[in-house]
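Quick sanity check, Annexin:
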Amino acid sequence: MIPLAIASMAISSIPLVSNTKSAVAKYAIPVLAITAVGGVTYVGYKYLKQNELPELRTNPSFPASKLTDVQAQAIAERLYVAMKSVGTDEAAIRSALTNLSENDFVKVYKAFGKRQYSLTWGNMGDPLTSSKHHLITWLQNELSSSDLKEIQKIVPNLLTVSV
C-alpha cells in the first residue's frame, strides 16, 4: 500500500514540474522515480524476509537431539507462555530448558520460529509496536543478565551462537 502511495505521488507531481525549466524541475522526476523504486524494493524485501528464521546449526561435536518434533514444539510453547504477557516466569523458562543439550535447544529454537514481540513493551505486543522475533531475542529481552547467565549454564553456548 505504501509503495503505491509513493509511486502515485511521484506520478502526480509530473505535471507540476514539467512546465518549469529550473534545475530542480529537471532532476525532480528522476529523483522521485528512483525514490519510488527504492521504496517499493525495500518494502518488498522486508515483506519477503519477515518470516525468515536466522539459521542456528546443530553442533556435530555433540550427540544429535533426541527430542521429537512434538516434544520440541511443546517446549517452545512452554517458553512462549512463560514470556508472552507482562511479567516473565523465569522458573518456567529454567524448567523448560533444563536437561536440554545444545542440539536439543536448536530443535526447540526452530520449533519456536519467529513470533510477534514488542521490544518496546517487552511482551507479545501488537502489530503496530512489535514485529516477529526468534527465541534468542525473546530470551535476551525477557531475562535479566543474571538469569541469562543461569540459563547459559543449562544451555552453554546459548549466547555465543551466531544467529
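Posting the structure with no commentary besides this: Residues 3 and 40 are 5 Å apart (CA to CA).
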